[in-house]
Design brief:
Strand order of the largest sheet: 12-7-6-17-16-15-14-13
Shape: globular
Number of strands: 17
Radius of gyration: 23 Å
Distance between the termini: 65 Å
Length: 483
């Protein structure tokens, strides 16, 4: 027997028989020795007893009861449940294409139903700055807008905008009511075109550039040899800290090409004065200055796995492993560092089901193969990002994310030994009506696990798009016309 609940509870003892939950009296009890997210539900004839340490466990218990109640009669049973991982995250990229506040709330509501507990909000990138700034208002006047809506297809329309502080606080409050922390991502030193377009003097060349219309990796990044860059970053982060009260801030750290630093007298002087080996260590030095500042403000810092390339990164940094072919994230965890697994090939939700079928996402084991005993203890959890370069509206976002986000949610909560794909697939079918009530249109079942021929075609089409001249200039030779 399997309860028709997502995520699947880890321990269920069945005692025979069924009851209507709405006919049961609900009693709440407290056990201060339980972990925060642990809950125990005892369903008998006439009474449902919920025991938790506090409000968080009670919230998760009631989420489970709500799904049981939606199914009709519930079995007489005892459920004892605790998540497999403490970090169960979902990321929304609002820099490339923005979502409305109601759309973001709908996504959060769905993630909360499946017991996810961290909203990673990607709010700035080469294609736009999305946070209202009172300290640097030019970011909203210049950096928040680009001269085109779609990627690779510039038009005459002006696209962009930003979330006001009032709107951001509204989203944060909405999350907190559902025991979800909010982690803002402020990219540095790379993916900062929206900042440099506003303040060219913060780059190595000091030349004005435009907010980008396409995706890619761009050579213009923040100048690590310029002290004014750190004054700006500290001032910006002070404003972010005031706005976002939760413990963590993400500072990016990925895809930062070093071509400008190699040719910048200020950066080369910085390498000499700080006795650094090369430009890679210069990025580590840059990151460590930002991390030290944030730690002094009481914050923990997240960064993408490329930040490990310097070999000198602050060991308190939480690493988000998205594509680490050299297994540095696993080495970092084995040495005691904390990591979050959000593997590109399994958990990125912006790729077609032909590339990442639902089964592939569900069956991925976040305990990476090169982790030793210590390393496994240092996997904080999982995260599923949705990048929006080519996800222009909420219906498309819904299709790409659901049900794959639900699969990641179950991997974050349910122990690997208790997971079963066929069982999950049967349970997830029943989520369609609930999601529709939120305005989320889940992908049809026929799309979830396409056959081999469909997958081959999707991969071929993807390869053709990468090899077309327009895409080559964006993905392989970014900024080729700027030198």
């Amino acid at each position: 027997m399997s309860l028709n609940v997502i995520p699947k509870p880890n321990t269920v003892e069945y005692h025979g028989g069924y009851v209507w939950l709405d006919e049961n009296e609900v009693t709440y009890k407290t056990n201060e020795h339980y972990p925060d997210e642990y809950y125990c539900i005892e369903i008998t004839k006439g009474e449902t007893i919920i025991t938790t340490r506090g409000e968080k466990g009670k919230y998760y218990a009631n989420l489970t009861l709500k799904q049981l109640d939606e199914c009709g009669k519930a079995p007489i049973c005892k459920i004892t449940d605790l998540p497999a991982f403490s970090y169960r995250g979902f990321m929304i990229d609002s820099a490339r294409h923005m979502q409305t506040i109601p759309e973001i709330k709908a996504y959060i509501e769905a993630a909360a139903r499946y017991k996810m507990n961290t909203f990673h909000w990607h709010l700035c990138d080469d294609q736009g700055w999305r946070i209202e700034s009172e300290k640097y208002p030019e970011l909203n006047e210049i950096g928040s807008f680009r001269n085109g809506w779609g990627f690779g297809n510039p038009d005459t329309s002006k696209y962009g905008g930003y979330y006001t502080k009032k709107e951001i606080k509204e989203v944060i409050d909405f999350c907190h009511e559902r025991f979800i922390d909010v982690v803002p991502e402020i990219d540095m030193p790379g993916h900062t075109t929206s900042i440099i377009a506003t303040y060219p003097e913060l780059s190595c060349r000091g030349e004005r550039i435009d907010v980008k219309l396409e995706g890619g990796i761009f050579r213009d990044i923040l100048c690590a040899g310029n002290d004014a860059v750190f004054d700006f970053c500290y001032g910006l982060l002070d404003e972010v800290i005031e706005l976002f009260p939760d413990e963590c801030i993400h500072i990016g750290g990925d895809e930062a090409p070093k071509a400008r630093w190699c040719n910048c007298p200020k950066c080369q002087e910085r390498i000499r004065v700080e006795a650094l080996r090369d430009e890679e260590e210069l990025q580590g030095w840059f990151a460590n200055k930002i991390i030290a500042y944030l730690e002094a403000k009481g914050k923990k810092v997240l960064a993408w796995n490329e930040s490990l390339n310097s070999g000198i990164l602050n060991n308190n940094t939480i690493i988000c492993d998205w594509m680490d072919k050299n297994h540095k994230s696993e080495e970092y965890a084995n040495r005691g560092g904390k990591i979050i697994v959000e593997d590109f090939y399994h958990y990125y939700l912006d790729y077609e089901y032909g590339m990442t079928p639902l089964k592939k996402t569900y069956e991925y084991n976040p305990y990476l193969p090169d982790l030793d005993f210590t390393g496994r203890q240092n996997v904080l959890g999982v995260e599923a990002p949705i990048w929006t370069e080519y996800v222009e509206d909420f219906d498309r976002m819904s299709y790409m994310c659901f049900p794959r986000l639900i699969a990641v949610a179950e991997s974050g909560w349910t122990n690997e030994k208790n997971k079963n794909y066929n069982d999950f697939r049967a349970r997830v079918k029943n989520q369609k009506d609930y999601l529709l009530s939120l305005g989320i249109k889940m992908a049809d079942e026929a799309a979830w696990d396409p056959g081999l021929n469909v997958r081959r075609k999707v991969m071929t089409d993807r390869l053709k798009s990468i090899l077309n001249p327009a895409m080559i200039s964006v993905t392989l030779f970014p900024n080729k016309d700027e030198d």
